[in-house]
Sequence to fold (421 residues):
Amino acid sequence: MTAMEETGATSRPTPGATSSGSLMPVPAFDPADSGPPCAYARLRTEQPVVKALMPNGETGWLISRHEDVRAAFADPRLTRPLLSAWPPREDADAPPPCLPTFLEMTGEHHTRVRRAVSPLFTRRRLEFMAPRIRAMAEELIDTMVRGSADRTGDLVASFTEPLPLRVLCETAGLPHEDRDLYLPHTLTLLSAAGLPMEEILAALYALQDYASGLIDRREKESGEGREDYVSLLLAESRREGGDLTRDDVVSFVVTMLMAGYKTNIQHTANALLALLTHPGQLRRLRDEPDGIDTAVEELLRHVPLMNAINVLVALEDFTLHGQRIRAGDAVLPVIASANRDPDAFPDPDRLDLTRSPNAHTAFGYGPHYCTGAHLTRLQLSVALQVLLEKLPDLELAEPADSLPWDETTPLRAPARLPVRW
Fold:
């Protein structure tokens, strides 16, 4: 019996449902901490399914346990709504929804598009990117070192901010010089759960228009010999009997911009902060570089890649841990909480770079498991390798508790990482 089956049974005592007149807010983040809010530890034990008030005024069922979060992402009774159409609007002048991102595609459409895109993101297919990512990372570190007279620098400004964008542009084929056109809209969409629908729609329409214009330009080029993903997918959309349409390629560009930029910037900064505040583990990783892949999995578990709210919508009524979820209700599986569940991970709040097995949910689970998971792993792995090789004596130059934080999105990360080497 899975955690999402039609049952009220639970292995731990659960208090009665929270009344609609006293909804708890979605737990607030703890100051200067990239991890999940501490409140989830209590919720996992006492209220693993609880109705909560979201920042935008909507309500949803928070799901905080590892088993339940995995089951939710795989449950066909739950679907991810279009960002441009949720919360639903019934007024006659509601704007038309935008194209679905890859996370929002369903049924045959999702199957067809994933069949075409997934081969581009396999570990084997991405091997060609490793030396390119290494060259980018080495160039950024060399530039930081050359520009420092006292062997100090800021890893955020010099390394974690520019690297993910360069990797994204190189891989997907996005023009780096257009960054001021598309990046502001991606930042808006990462905060969508707390923004008015008008702002969300404006950002989505702008990204969709940008992507469509980019593809217009590519269609006028020969594209011969180009290996970037936009060019390859555009060629597939032109192939007779191919799996993709032009709109699918537009959706790909929008999806990559939403998922492949700011999330990787902030996760890389948080991962480096975690290592720098655990010098013993950092030293062990430096002395045993063969453990880098296992370390990357632990950093993905320990440091949330997605600390924002994931919204699913129930397609039918069902009961979970004694709570009756109705068709149309929002269900909010909390990935960051699932990755700290002691029932799934011994001593879950401890960073253990040798942890194995490590069944984290950083990339989701089920049919919509993140297509770009291997690219994210590769980027973090290469970044760590280059830092450890080039700056073996790397350490924080200021106390960790004095660092300023970038809280412009729910992902949250240090705004500066002052280091010495």
User: Anything to note?
Assistant: The chain is about 45% helix and 10% strand. Residues 186 and 413 are 17 Å apart (CA to CA).
